[in-house]
Specification:
The structure holds two protein chains of two kinds. Chain A is of the alpha/beta class. Chain A has five helices and five strands. Chain A has one domain: 3-Layer(aba) Sandwich (Rossmann fold), CATH 3.40.50.2300. The longest helix of chain A is centred in the N-terminal third of the chain and has 13 residues.
Chain lengths: 128, 438
Protein backbone atom coordinates (compact mmCIF):
# COMPACT_ATOMS: atom_id res chain seq x y z
CA UNK A 1 0.00 0.00 0.00
CA UNK A 2 1.52 3.32 -1.03
CA UNK A 3 1.68 6.04 1.63
CA UNK A 4 1.20 9.69 0.88
CA UNK A 5 4.49 11.45 1.45
CA UNK A 6 4.45 14.16 4.11
CA UNK A 7 5.29 17.58 2.75
CA UNK A 8 7.82 20.03 4.11
CA UNK A 9 7.98 23.57 2.75
CA UNK A 10 11.50 24.93 3.00
CA UNK A 11 11.65 28.74 2.78
CA UNK A 12 15.32 29.71 2.68
CA UNK A 13 17.14 32.29 0.57
CA UNK A 14 20.66 31.11 1.37
CA UNK A 15 21.31 28.66 -1.49
CA UNK A 16 23.97 26.45 0.17
CA UNK A 17 21.86 26.08 3.34
CA UNK A 18 18.79 25.25 1.24
CA UNK A 19 20.81 22.70 -0.73
CA UNK A 20 21.91 20.76 2.36
CA UNK A 21 18.53 20.93 4.08
CA UNK A 22 16.68 19.91 0.92
CA UNK A 23 18.90 16.85 0.48
CA UNK A 24 18.65 15.88 4.17
CA UNK A 25 14.85 16.19 4.29
CA UNK A 26 14.39 14.39 1.00
CA UNK A 27 16.57 11.52 2.16
CA UNK A 28 14.25 11.22 5.17
CA UNK A 29 11.44 10.49 2.74
CA UNK A 30 9.63 13.81 2.80
CA UNK A 31 8.36 15.64 -0.21
CA UNK A 32 10.19 18.96 -0.06
CA UNK A 33 8.90 22.16 -1.61
CA UNK A 34 11.41 24.98 -1.98
CA UNK A 35 10.93 28.76 -1.85
CA UNK A 36 13.64 31.41 -1.79
CA UNK A 37 11.66 34.30 -0.34
CA UNK A 38 8.62 34.95 1.82
CA UNK A 39 6.36 35.81 -1.09
CA UNK A 40 7.03 32.53 -2.89
CA UNK A 41 6.78 30.69 0.43
CA UNK A 42 3.36 32.20 1.15
CA UNK A 43 2.04 31.20 -2.28
CA UNK A 44 3.36 27.63 -1.96
CA UNK A 45 2.04 27.29 1.58
CA UNK A 46 -1.49 28.40 0.71
CA UNK A 47 -1.57 26.27 -2.45
CA UNK A 48 -0.10 23.05 -0.99
CA UNK A 49 -0.91 23.11 2.73
CA UNK A 50 2.42 21.48 3.70
CA UNK A 51 2.64 19.46 6.92
CA UNK A 52 5.54 21.55 8.19
CA UNK A 53 6.97 24.89 7.12
CA UNK A 54 10.64 25.53 7.81
CA UNK A 55 11.12 29.27 7.49
CA UNK A 56 14.08 31.61 7.57
CA UNK A 57 13.42 35.17 8.82
CA UNK A 58 15.66 37.52 6.86
CA UNK A 59 14.73 37.09 3.22
CA UNK A 60 14.25 39.34 0.19
CA UNK A 61 10.84 40.49 -1.13
CA UNK A 62 8.98 39.34 1.98
CA UNK A 63 10.61 38.48 5.33
CA UNK A 64 9.78 35.31 7.21
CA UNK A 65 7.81 37.05 9.95
CA UNK A 66 5.57 38.82 7.47
CA UNK A 67 5.04 35.55 5.61
CA UNK A 68 4.03 33.81 8.87
CA UNK A 69 1.66 36.65 9.68
CA UNK A 70 -0.01 36.26 6.28
CA UNK A 71 -0.22 32.47 6.62
CA UNK A 72 -1.91 32.91 10.04
CA UNK A 73 -4.69 34.94 8.38
CA UNK A 74 -5.74 31.85 6.42
CA UNK A 75 -8.14 29.33 8.00
CA UNK A 76 -5.74 26.43 7.28
CA UNK A 77 -2.70 28.56 8.13
CA UNK A 78 -3.97 29.34 11.65
CA UNK A 79 -2.93 25.86 12.74
CA UNK A 80 -0.05 25.28 10.32
CA UNK A 81 3.10 23.80 11.85
CA UNK A 82 5.85 26.38 11.43
CA UNK A 83 9.46 26.13 12.56
CA UNK A 84 11.56 29.29 12.38
CA UNK A 85 15.15 28.63 11.38
CA UNK A 86 17.34 31.70 11.66
CA UNK A 87 20.45 33.33 13.03
CA UNK A 88 18.43 36.27 14.34
CA UNK A 89 18.30 35.77 18.08
CA UNK A 90 17.11 39.05 19.51
CA UNK A 91 14.31 39.16 22.03
CA UNK A 92 12.07 41.19 19.75
CA UNK A 93 12.08 38.54 17.02
CA UNK A 94 11.38 35.77 19.54
CA UNK A 95 8.46 37.68 21.01
CA UNK A 96 7.12 38.48 17.56
CA UNK A 97 7.31 34.82 16.60
CA UNK A 98 5.40 33.82 19.71
CA UNK A 99 2.77 36.46 19.13
CA UNK A 100 2.24 34.82 15.71
CA UNK A 101 1.65 31.51 17.44
CA UNK A 102 5.01 30.10 16.37
CA UNK A 103 6.85 28.53 19.27
CA UNK A 104 9.46 26.50 17.44
CA UNK A 105 12.50 28.61 16.96
CA UNK A 106 15.84 27.13 15.93
CA UNK A 107 19.12 29.01 15.75
CA UNK A 108 21.00 27.92 12.63
CA UNK A 109 24.42 28.51 14.14
CA UNK A 110 23.58 26.29 17.13
CA UNK A 111 21.92 23.49 15.17
CA UNK A 112 23.21 20.68 13.00
CA UNK A 113 21.29 19.46 9.98
CA UNK A 114 20.44 16.34 11.99
CA UNK A 115 18.94 18.55 14.76
CA UNK A 116 16.75 20.29 12.21
CA UNK A 117 15.57 17.05 10.60
CA UNK A 118 14.79 15.69 14.09
CA UNK A 119 12.78 18.81 14.89
CA UNK A 120 10.79 18.48 11.64
CA UNK A 121 10.11 14.84 12.47
CA UNK A 122 8.89 15.76 15.95
CA UNK A 123 6.36 18.22 14.54
CA UNK A 124 4.84 15.73 12.13
CA UNK A 125 2.08 13.34 13.06
CA UNK A 126 2.83 9.66 12.30
CA UNK A 127 2.50 8.94 8.57
CA UNK A 128 -1.08 8.48 7.49
CA UNK B 1 42.88 104.85 38.94
CA UNK B 2 42.65 108.31 37.29
CA UNK B 3 42.06 109.99 40.62
CA UNK B 4 45.31 108.53 41.94
CA UNK B 5 47.24 109.87 38.97
CA UNK B 6 45.75 113.35 39.42
CA UNK B 7 46.58 113.25 43.11
CA UNK B 8 50.19 112.19 42.48
CA UNK B 9 50.58 115.00 39.92
CA UNK B 10 49.21 117.49 42.40
CA UNK B 11 51.57 116.25 45.09
CA UNK B 12 54.57 116.46 42.75
CA UNK B 13 53.62 120.05 41.99
CA UNK B 14 53.20 120.73 45.70
CA UNK B 15 56.62 119.17 46.35
CA UNK B 16 58.32 121.53 43.90
CA UNK B 17 56.52 124.52 45.35
CA UNK B 18 57.39 123.44 48.87
CA UNK B 19 61.12 123.42 48.02
CA UNK B 20 60.90 126.90 46.50
CA UNK B 21 58.90 128.18 49.47
CA UNK B 22 61.29 126.56 51.97
CA UNK B 23 64.32 128.30 50.45
CA UNK B 24 62.49 131.59 50.59
CA UNK B 25 61.34 131.08 54.16
CA UNK B 26 64.81 130.04 55.45
CA UNK B 27 66.07 133.37 54.33
CA UNK B 28 63.25 135.08 56.29
CA UNK B 29 63.05 133.29 59.66
CA UNK B 30 64.76 130.19 61.18
CA UNK B 31 61.60 129.27 63.16
CA UNK B 32 59.47 129.31 60.11
CA UNK B 33 62.31 127.42 58.42
CA UNK B 34 61.99 124.51 60.95
CA UNK B 35 58.23 124.43 60.40
CA UNK B 36 58.91 124.41 56.69
CA UNK B 37 61.31 121.48 56.97
CA UNK B 38 58.72 119.50 58.95
CA UNK B 39 56.07 120.27 56.38
CA UNK B 40 58.52 119.29 53.67
CA UNK B 41 59.18 115.89 55.33
CA UNK B 42 55.47 115.35 55.75
CA UNK B 43 54.87 116.02 52.09
CA UNK B 44 57.67 113.59 51.13
CA UNK B 45 56.21 110.84 53.36
CA UNK B 46 52.75 111.33 51.82
CA UNK B 47 54.28 111.28 48.38
CA UNK B 48 56.15 108.01 49.02
CA UNK B 49 53.10 106.33 50.58
CA UNK B 50 50.86 107.31 47.69
CA UNK B 51 53.29 106.25 44.99
CA UNK B 52 53.72 102.81 46.73
CA UNK B 53 49.95 102.43 46.74
CA UNK B 54 49.76 103.44 43.14
CA UNK B 55 52.39 100.85 42.14
CA UNK B 56 50.52 98.16 44.10
CA UNK B 57 47.21 99.07 42.51
CA UNK B 58 48.79 99.02 39.09
CA UNK B 59 50.16 95.55 39.86
CA UNK B 60 46.72 94.36 40.99
CA UNK B 61 45.17 95.84 37.86
CA UNK B 62 47.70 93.92 35.72
CA UNK B 63 46.91 90.69 37.55
CA UNK B 64 43.15 91.23 37.18
CA UNK B 65 43.67 91.82 33.48
CA UNK B 66 45.71 88.62 33.16
CA UNK B 67 43.13 86.61 35.12
CA UNK B 68 40.37 87.98 32.87
CA UNK B 69 42.33 86.95 29.80
CA UNK B 70 42.98 83.42 31.16
CA UNK B 71 39.35 83.14 32.20
CA UNK B 72 38.22 84.12 28.74
CA UNK B 73 40.57 81.58 27.16
CA UNK B 74 39.37 78.86 29.56
CA UNK B 75 35.79 79.69 28.73
CA UNK B 76 36.54 79.41 25.00
CA UNK B 77 38.37 76.11 25.56
CA UNK B 78 35.38 74.79 27.54
CA UNK B 79 33.03 75.69 24.70
CA UNK B 80 35.24 74.04 22.08
CA UNK B 81 35.93 70.95 24.19
CA UNK B 82 32.29 70.74 25.37
CA UNK B 83 33.15 70.55 29.05
CA UNK B 84 32.22 72.62 32.04
CA UNK B 85 34.09 73.00 35.30
CA UNK B 86 32.76 73.20 38.83
CA UNK B 87 33.79 73.48 42.45
CA UNK B 88 31.58 72.32 45.24
CA UNK B 89 32.64 73.72 48.58
CA UNK B 90 31.58 71.15 51.17
CA UNK B 91 32.09 73.43 54.19
CA UNK B 92 30.60 76.56 52.67
CA UNK B 93 28.29 75.78 49.71
CA UNK B 94 27.90 79.52 48.99
CA UNK B 95 31.55 79.48 47.79
CA UNK B 96 30.69 76.89 45.11
CA UNK B 97 31.20 77.72 41.47
CA UNK B 98 29.99 76.60 38.04
CA UNK B 99 31.56 77.79 34.81
CA UNK B 100 29.29 79.16 32.08
CA UNK B 101 29.62 75.92 30.13
CA UNK B 102 28.29 73.94 33.11
CA UNK B 103 25.04 75.84 32.76
CA UNK B 104 25.04 75.25 29.01
CA UNK B 105 25.62 71.49 29.46
CA UNK B 106 22.94 71.04 32.10
CA UNK B 107 20.51 73.30 30.24
CA UNK B 108 20.03 75.45 33.33
CA UNK B 109 20.00 79.24 33.59
CA UNK B 110 22.59 80.95 35.71
CA UNK B 111 20.10 83.42 37.15
CA UNK B 112 17.67 80.71 38.29
CA UNK B 113 19.99 78.10 39.70
CA UNK B 114 22.83 78.51 42.15
CA UNK B 115 25.65 76.06 41.46
CA UNK B 116 24.62 73.02 43.49
CA UNK B 117 25.04 69.28 43.24
CA UNK B 118 21.29 68.84 43.63
CA UNK B 119 20.87 70.76 40.36
CA UNK B 120 23.10 68.20 38.59
CA UNK B 121 20.88 65.40 39.95
CA UNK B 122 17.69 67.25 39.08
CA UNK B 123 18.46 67.35 35.36
CA UNK B 124 19.38 63.63 35.22
CA UNK B 125 17.24 61.19 33.24
CA UNK B 126 14.69 59.72 35.66
CA UNK B 127 16.18 56.24 35.27
CA UNK B 128 19.62 57.58 36.22
CA UNK B 129 18.60 59.92 39.09
CA UNK B 130 19.06 57.49 41.96
CA UNK B 131 22.42 56.27 40.68
CA UNK B 132 23.64 59.86 40.16
CA UNK B 133 22.58 60.76 43.69
CA UNK B 134 24.45 57.74 45.04
CA UNK B 135 27.53 58.62 42.98
CA UNK B 136 27.58 62.15 44.42
CA UNK B 137 27.03 60.90 47.96
CA UNK B 138 29.93 58.54 47.59
CA UNK B 139 32.14 61.33 46.14
CA UNK B 140 31.28 63.55 49.11
CA UNK B 141 32.22 60.89 51.62
CA UNK B 142 35.57 59.78 50.29
CA UNK B 143 38.68 61.72 49.36
CA UNK B 144 40.21 61.00 45.96
CA UNK B 145 39.25 60.89 42.30
CA UNK B 146 35.90 59.67 40.92
CA UNK B 147 34.22 59.30 37.54
CA UNK B 148 30.71 58.52 36.44
CA UNK B 149 28.53 59.01 33.38
CA UNK B 150 24.84 59.69 33.09
CA UNK B 151 22.13 61.14 30.87
CA UNK B 152 20.75 64.66 31.14
CA UNK B 153 17.30 65.44 29.80
CA UNK B 154 17.19 68.85 28.18
CA UNK B 155 14.05 70.91 27.78
CA UNK B 156 13.15 69.50 24.38
CA UNK B 157 13.37 65.88 25.63
CA UNK B 158 16.77 65.79 23.98
CA UNK B 159 19.20 63.46 25.76
CA UNK B 160 22.74 64.54 26.52
CA UNK B 161 25.27 61.99 27.76
CA UNK B 162 27.82 63.46 30.18
CA UNK B 163 30.84 62.13 32.01
CA UNK B 164 31.85 63.71 35.32
CA UNK B 165 35.46 63.51 36.45
CA UNK B 166 36.26 64.97 39.86
CA UNK B 167 38.49 64.95 42.89
CA UNK B 168 37.39 65.28 46.49
CA UNK B 169 40.08 67.06 48.49
CA UNK B 170 40.70 67.08 52.24
CA UNK B 171 42.27 69.42 54.75
CA UNK B 172 43.98 68.41 57.98
CA UNK B 173 42.76 70.05 61.16
CA UNK B 174 45.19 68.75 63.78
CA UNK B 175 45.03 64.98 63.51
CA UNK B 176 41.53 65.14 61.98
CA UNK B 177 41.06 65.12 58.20
CA UNK B 178 38.10 67.06 56.93
CA UNK B 179 36.61 66.89 53.42
CA UNK B 180 37.05 70.31 51.89
CA UNK B 181 35.75 70.52 48.34
CA UNK B 182 34.99 68.65 45.14
CA UNK B 183 36.57 70.03 42.00
CA UNK B 184 35.76 68.59 38.64
CA UNK B 185 34.68 68.77 35.04
CA UNK B 186 31.57 67.62 33.22
CA UNK B 187 32.19 66.46 29.67
CA UNK B 188 29.58 66.14 26.90
CA UNK B 189 30.08 62.61 25.51
CA UNK B 190 26.86 62.39 23.46
CA UNK B 191 28.74 62.10 20.19
CA UNK B 192 31.04 59.39 21.59
CA UNK B 193 28.04 57.44 22.84
CA UNK B 194 26.28 57.73 19.49
CA UNK B 195 29.38 56.54 17.65
CA UNK B 196 29.78 53.69 20.11
CA UNK B 197 26.14 52.67 19.67
CA UNK B 198 26.40 52.81 15.89
CA UNK B 199 29.57 50.72 16.08
CA UNK B 200 27.90 48.10 18.27
CA UNK B 201 24.85 47.99 15.99
CA UNK B 202 27.14 47.51 13.02
CA UNK B 203 29.00 44.69 14.76
CA UNK B 204 25.69 43.07 15.65
CA UNK B 205 24.41 43.27 12.08
CA UNK B 206 27.71 42.15 10.59
CA UNK B 207 27.86 39.22 12.99
CA UNK B 208 24.40 38.02 11.97
CA UNK B 209 25.30 38.35 8.32
CA UNK B 210 28.54 36.45 8.89
CA UNK B 211 26.80 33.65 10.73
CA UNK B 212 24.59 32.73 7.78
CA UNK B 213 27.35 31.74 5.33
CA UNK B 214 29.35 30.22 8.20
CA UNK B 215 26.41 27.96 8.99
CA UNK B 216 26.21 26.91 5.35
CA UNK B 217 29.92 26.06 5.33
CA UNK B 218 29.47 23.95 8.45
CA UNK B 219 26.41 22.12 7.16
CA UNK B 220 28.01 21.40 3.78
CA UNK B 221 31.25 20.22 5.39
CA UNK B 222 29.32 17.97 7.76
CA UNK B 223 27.33 16.59 4.83
CA UNK B 224 30.57 15.84 2.97
CA UNK B 225 32.15 14.18 6.02
CA UNK B 226 28.96 12.18 6.55
CA UNK B 227 29.31 10.76 3.06
CA UNK B 228 26.13 12.46 1.77
CA UNK B 229 27.90 13.21 -1.50
CA UNK B 230 29.73 9.90 -1.70
CA UNK B 231 32.55 8.43 0.37
CA UNK B 232 35.61 10.66 0.82
CA UNK B 233 39.19 9.46 0.64
CA UNK B 234 41.33 10.00 3.75
CA UNK B 235 43.02 13.16 2.44
CA UNK B 236 39.62 14.69 1.54
CA UNK B 237 38.31 13.85 5.00
CA UNK B 238 41.33 15.53 6.58
CA UNK B 239 40.86 18.70 4.52
CA UNK B 240 37.13 18.93 5.20
CA UNK B 241 37.83 18.40 8.92
CA UNK B 242 40.24 21.34 8.78
CA UNK B 243 37.55 23.45 7.10
CA UNK B 244 35.14 22.50 9.88
CA UNK B 245 37.67 23.39 12.57
CA UNK B 246 38.41 26.78 11.03
CA UNK B 247 34.67 27.34 10.71
CA UNK B 248 34.17 26.50 14.40
CA UNK B 249 36.83 29.02 15.44
CA UNK B 250 35.31 31.70 13.28
CA UNK B 251 31.81 31.01 14.68
CA UNK B 252 33.24 31.37 18.20
CA UNK B 253 34.79 34.72 17.31
CA UNK B 254 31.58 35.99 15.72
CA UNK B 255 29.63 34.87 18.79
CA UNK B 256 32.01 36.73 21.09
CA UNK B 257 31.68 39.90 19.01
CA UNK B 258 27.94 39.51 19.13
CA UNK B 259 28.01 39.12 22.90
CA UNK B 260 30.10 42.26 23.29
CA UNK B 261 27.77 44.27 21.10
CA UNK B 262 24.77 42.90 23.03
CA UNK B 263 26.30 44.02 26.32
CA UNK B 264 27.37 47.39 24.95
CA UNK B 265 23.98 48.00 23.38
CA UNK B 266 22.45 47.03 26.71
CA UNK B 267 20.20 44.41 25.15
CA UNK B 268 20.75 41.82 27.84
CA UNK B 269 19.18 40.66 31.07
CA UNK B 270 15.78 40.83 29.46
CA UNK B 271 15.14 37.14 29.79
CA UNK B 272 15.19 36.38 33.51
CA UNK B 273 14.53 32.86 34.71
CA UNK B 274 15.17 30.73 37.76
CA UNK B 275 17.82 28.08 37.24
CA UNK B 276 20.26 25.81 39.02
CA UNK B 277 23.65 27.49 38.67
CA UNK B 278 25.46 24.38 39.96
CA UNK B 279 23.86 22.35 37.21
CA UNK B 280 24.92 25.01 34.70
CA UNK B 281 28.52 24.83 35.96
CA UNK B 282 28.46 21.03 35.58
CA UNK B 283 27.34 21.40 31.95
CA UNK B 284 30.01 23.99 31.19
CA UNK B 285 32.66 21.73 32.73
CA UNK B 286 31.36 18.76 30.74
CA UNK B 287 31.72 20.73 27.49
CA UNK B 288 35.41 21.26 28.29
CA UNK B 289 36.03 17.60 29.07
CA UNK B 290 37.76 16.82 25.77
CA UNK B 291 40.34 19.58 26.40
CA UNK B 292 40.78 18.55 30.07
CA UNK B 293 41.39 14.94 29.04
CA UNK B 294 43.68 15.89 26.17
CA UNK B 295 45.91 17.91 28.51
CA UNK B 296 45.56 15.57 31.51
CA UNK B 297 44.45 18.47 33.69
CA UNK B 298 43.19 17.73 37.18
CA UNK B 299 39.85 19.56 37.25
CA UNK B 300 37.89 19.89 40.47
CA UNK B 301 34.64 21.87 40.74
CA UNK B 302 32.71 22.39 43.94
CA UNK B 303 29.32 23.96 44.40
CA UNK B 304 28.36 24.76 48.01
CA UNK B 305 25.32 22.80 49.17
CA UNK B 306 23.42 25.93 50.20
CA UNK B 307 23.60 27.71 46.80
CA UNK B 308 20.00 28.55 45.92
CA UNK B 309 18.63 28.76 42.40
CA UNK B 310 19.70 31.95 40.68
CA UNK B 311 17.11 34.27 39.21
CA UNK B 312 18.77 35.94 36.26
CA UNK B 313 19.81 35.71 32.64
CA UNK B 314 21.01 32.14 32.21
CA UNK B 315 22.85 32.87 28.95
CA UNK B 316 24.87 35.62 30.67
CA UNK B 317 25.79 33.47 33.70
CA UNK B 318 26.72 30.70 31.31
CA UNK B 319 28.99 33.12 29.46
CA UNK B 320 30.78 34.04 32.71
CA UNK B 321 31.30 30.40 33.71
CA UNK B 322 32.24 29.32 30.21
CA UNK B 323 34.84 32.07 29.78
CA UNK B 324 36.44 31.54 33.21
CA UNK B 325 36.57 27.75 33.01
CA UNK B 326 37.71 27.54 29.38
CA UNK B 327 40.38 30.22 29.96
CA UNK B 328 41.72 28.36 33.00
CA UNK B 329 41.97 25.15 30.97
CA UNK B 330 43.37 26.89 27.88
CA UNK B 331 46.14 28.67 29.75
CA UNK B 332 47.16 25.77 31.99
CA UNK B 333 49.86 23.51 30.66
CA UNK B 334 49.51 19.72 30.50
CA UNK B 335 49.22 17.97 33.88
CA UNK B 336 48.33 21.20 35.67
CA UNK B 337 45.22 21.69 37.79
CA UNK B 338 42.08 23.84 37.65
CA UNK B 339 39.66 24.36 40.50
CA UNK B 340 36.30 26.09 40.46
CA UNK B 341 33.98 26.89 43.31
CA UNK B 342 30.55 28.46 43.66
CA UNK B 343 29.43 29.89 47.00
CA UNK B 344 27.08 32.57 48.25
CA UNK B 345 27.79 35.55 50.48
CA UNK B 346 27.65 39.31 50.74
CA UNK B 347 26.29 41.51 53.51
CA UNK B 348 22.77 40.23 52.93
CA UNK B 349 23.71 36.81 51.61
CA UNK B 350 22.40 38.00 48.27
CA UNK B 351 25.45 37.46 46.07
CA UNK B 352 26.79 34.50 44.15
CA UNK B 353 30.57 34.08 44.22
CA UNK B 354 32.42 32.25 41.50
CA UNK B 355 36.09 31.39 41.94
CA UNK B 356 38.20 29.74 39.27
CA UNK B 357 41.86 29.01 40.07
CA UNK B 358 44.49 27.42 37.90
CA UNK B 359 48.16 26.52 37.98
CA UNK B 360 48.60 28.00 34.53
CA UNK B 361 50.95 30.45 32.85
CA UNK B 362 49.72 33.42 34.92
CA UNK B 363 49.53 37.05 33.83
CA UNK B 364 52.74 39.12 33.57
CA UNK B 365 52.77 41.79 36.30
CA UNK B 366 53.21 44.63 33.81
CA UNK B 367 50.05 43.57 31.94
CA UNK B 368 47.81 42.91 34.92
CA UNK B 369 46.21 46.35 34.76
CA UNK B 370 44.87 45.62 31.27
CA UNK B 371 43.43 42.15 31.84
CA UNK B 372 39.78 43.23 31.61
CA UNK B 373 40.35 45.62 28.69
CA UNK B 374 38.46 44.91 25.49
CA UNK B 375 40.59 43.08 22.89
CA UNK B 376 43.64 42.95 25.16
CA UNK B 377 45.51 39.67 25.36
CA UNK B 378 48.46 39.11 27.67
CA UNK B 379 51.64 38.47 25.67
CA UNK B 380 52.20 34.98 27.09
CA UNK B 381 48.53 34.04 26.47
CA UNK B 382 48.70 35.16 22.84
CA UNK B 383 51.85 33.13 22.40
CA UNK B 384 50.32 29.96 23.84
CA UNK B 385 46.89 30.27 22.17
CA UNK B 386 47.21 32.51 19.09
CA UNK B 387 43.57 32.62 17.99
CA UNK B 388 41.83 34.18 21.02
CA UNK B 389 39.90 37.45 20.68
CA UNK B 390 40.64 39.16 23.98
CA UNK B 391 36.94 39.67 24.55
CA UNK B 392 36.13 36.95 27.10
CA UNK B 393 37.26 38.66 30.29
CA UNK B 394 35.88 42.00 29.11
CA UNK B 395 32.51 40.28 28.74
CA UNK B 396 32.82 38.68 32.20
CA UNK B 397 33.62 41.99 33.92
CA UNK B 398 30.97 43.90 31.97
CA UNK B 399 28.20 41.48 32.94
CA UNK B 400 29.32 41.34 36.58
CA UNK B 401 29.52 45.12 36.92
CA UNK B 402 26.31 45.87 35.04
CA UNK B 403 24.39 43.57 37.36
CA UNK B 404 25.95 45.13 40.47
CA UNK B 405 28.66 42.52 41.02
CA UNK B 406 32.39 42.57 40.51
CA UNK B 407 35.29 40.75 38.86
CA UNK B 408 38.84 40.61 40.29
CA UNK B 409 41.89 38.39 40.04
CA UNK B 410 45.26 37.51 41.59
CA UNK B 411 48.00 36.16 39.41
CA UNK B 412 51.65 35.24 39.52
CA UNK B 413 53.33 34.71 36.19
CA UNK B 414 54.35 31.12 35.77
CA UNK B 415 52.44 30.02 38.88
CA UNK B 416 48.78 30.52 38.14
CA UNK B 417 45.73 32.76 38.36
CA UNK B 418 42.58 33.01 40.45
CA UNK B 419 39.54 34.88 39.16
CA UNK B 420 36.76 35.90 41.51
CA UNK B 421 33.44 37.06 40.09
CA UNK B 422 30.28 38.04 41.91
CA UNK B 423 26.76 38.58 40.58
CA UNK B 424 23.49 39.06 42.47
CA UNK B 425 21.39 35.97 43.21
CA UNK B 426 18.35 37.89 42.06
CA UNK B 427 18.86 40.08 39.00
CA UNK B 428 16.84 43.13 38.21
CA UNK B 429 15.13 43.35 34.86
CA UNK B 430 16.51 45.54 32.12
CA UNK B 431 19.92 46.59 33.35
CA UNK B 432 20.26 48.35 30.02
CA UNK B 433 17.95 51.15 31.10
CA UNK B 434 20.48 52.33 33.64
CA UNK B 435 23.28 54.09 31.84
CA UNK B 436 25.19 55.36 34.87
CA UNK B 437 28.65 53.88 34.79
CA UNK B 438 31.04 54.25 37.68
Amino acid sequence: MSEKKQTVLLVEDEAPAALVLFAALESEGYMVLKATDGKEGLALALANHPDVILADLKMPKMGGMEMIHEIRQDSWGKKAEIIILTNVTDEKSLEEAMSEGTFHYMVKGDSSVADIVAKVRSRLSPTQ
Amino acid sequence: MESVVVLVDALTELFHRAIETALLVVSISPLIAVAGVLLFLLVIAAYLALSARWTAEQHVADLVHKIDAVSEKLSEAEKIGKFGSFTWDIEDPSESFWSEEMYALTGLFQRDKPPAIEAMVEVAHKADKEAVRTAWKSAMMRAGPFTFTYRIVLGSEQIRHVRVHGVTSVTSVGSEKRLLRITGVMHDITKEMEIDKAKSEFVSLASHQLKTPLTSIRWLSEALLGGKAGELVEKEKEYVSQILDANRRMVEMVNELLNVSKIELGTFATDLEEFDVCDLLARVVEEQKHMVDAKSIALRCICASDVPHLQGDKAMVRMILQNLVSNAIKYTLAKGSVECEITTGGARQDMLFIRVSDTGIGIPKAEQGRVFEKLHRASNAAELVPDGTGLGLYVVKSIAEKTGGNATFDSIEGKGTTFRVSVPLVWKENYEKKSVEM
